[in-house]
Design goal:
Helix content is about 50%, strand content about 0%. It is mainly α and about 80 residues long. Helix 2 packs antiparallel against helix 5. The N terminus is likely disordered.
Length: about 80
């Protein structure tokens, strides 16, 4: 089986998973809040305000967002200090 995210070392799990809630993500990785703010226009409302307790996958479905792109951007933010 090949690693879907080749930038991660073998065996390493992604920091951001589709089953994580928005609250889980922003509380563990503060820099991700800025990513969610950037996606608010596409969602048509504040994601952190209105979908805080929803899993990322459900948020993407609810607002018709590209889950893969959103996840990549959030993952990148987890590496910021």
């Amino acid at each position: 089986m090949t690693d879907p995210n080749p930038s991660r070392p073998n065996g390493a799990s992604p920091a951001i998973r589709p089953d994580m809630t928005v609250l889980d993500i922003v509380s563990q990785y503060r820099a991700t809040q800025d990513v969610f703010k950037q996606w608010d226009d596409k969602a048509g409302e504040c994601i952190c305000c209105n979908a805080l307790f929803e899993p990322l996958k459900a948020v993407a479905e609810k607002y018709s967002l590209d889950l893969d792109t959103l996840t990549r951007e959030l993952e990148t933010a987890t590496k910021q200090k």
